[in-house]
Specification:
With about 300 residues, this protein is an alpha+beta fold. About 60% of the residues lie in helices and about 10% in strands. Strand 4 and strand 5 form a beta hairpin. The longest helix is centred in the middle third of the chain and has 72 residues. It is elongated and about 110 Å long. It catalyses: ATP + protein L-histidine = ADP + protein N-phospho-L-histidine.
């Protein structure tokens, strides 16, 4: 918009008109428009512009009340402009805090899932070390088992505050995506599910996060694609797991229930040094593509 880009030249032009035309022309009201824009940018600019308007008004004054009304109108315009600036800053800060809270909550959820996955692996390590010690009598195996038990204890104590009843259930993985697909179909979304490449065992944390990413993406499809066709693809590559969720409808929101939508996806991908791409598809529709390295 021209006024937003060049408020000073426009104000100067209005003031020039105010000087040139008869005093009866209400040029002051036109000058208040660029004054508002300048006051939004910087308070000092607004005050300087108001002073210039008052100066011209004094030169063209026909009645003693005119400068007073000019001061009142200018002060009101500046006050409204600065209030709008503060209002936008407060709204931006609120959005930032909501984003940070959603990200923090998602990190806690990831930590709980990783605790379960790592705890399972350490438990197996302890059992195997104890079995080896029982068979061979090797004191080093006993030491490994003892270290594993201490590690488990520290993990439980450190993450105890993160536990809740819901966390006691086994964490879902990619093998459980059938339920997500069926839920989407039950909600009226014609969705397909494809697995590419040779499936391979995944670390528990990676498996759970991959499931959550697909779950969040499909939830966005249900809520925002308006029943458009969708597709879920899980591709087992040589070095990384690739997840693709595409639809032919609208765009997702930044926050949803459960994993907080795109915020949750970003946090989970970042936890495994992966990459995430979200955006419109060529033509129409939307795509979520995540890549999670196996060795993150």
């Amino acid at each position: 918009m021209l006024l937003r880009r060049h408020p000073i030249p426009i104000l100067v032009a209005v003031l020039a008109v105010g000087i040139a035309v008869p005093a009866a022309i209400p040029w002051v009201f036109a000058a208040l428009v660029p004054l508002y824009v300048l006051a939004e940018r910087d308070l000092r600019h607004g005050v300087a512009a108001a002073a210039a308007i008052l100066l011209v008004q004094l030169v063209k004054m026909d009645h003693p009340v005119e400068p007073i009304s000019t001061v009142v109108f200018s002060a009101a315009v500046i006050a409204v402009a600065r209030y709008r600036v503060l209002q936008r800053a407060a709204a931006a800060r609120e959005r930032e805090l909501l984003f940070e809270a959603a990200a923090a909550e998602e990190r806690l959820r990831i930590a709980r899932e990783l605790h379960d996955a790592v705890g399972h692996d350490v438990s197996l390590m302890v059992v195997q070390a104890e079995a080896l010690a029982a068979v061979t009598g090797d004191e080093r195996a006993d030491a490994i088992a003892a270290l594993g038990r201490r590690t488990m204890g520290e993990m439980h104590r450190t993450l105890k505050v993160l536990r809740d009843d819901a966390d006691l259930a086994p964490q879902p993985g990619l093998n459980d995506l059938g339920g997500v697909i069926e839920d989407a179909r039950g909600a009226g979304v014609p969705i397909t599910f494809t697995v590419e490449g040779a499936p391979r065992p995944l670390p528990g944390g990676l498996d759970a996060s991959a499931y959550r990413i697909v779950q969040e993406a499909v939830t966005n499809v249900i809520r925002h694609a308006g029943g458009a066709a969708a597709a879920v693809t899980v591709h087992y590559g040589d070095d990384a797991l690739e997840l693709r969720v595409t639809d032919e409808g609208g765009e997702p929101s930044d926050t949803n229930g459960g994993g907080h939508g795109l915020v949750g996806m970003r946090e989970r991908v970042a936890a495994f040094n992966g990459t995430l791409q979200v955006g419109p598809r060529a033509g129409h529709g939307y795509e979520v593509r995540a890549e999670l390295p196996y060795t993150a």
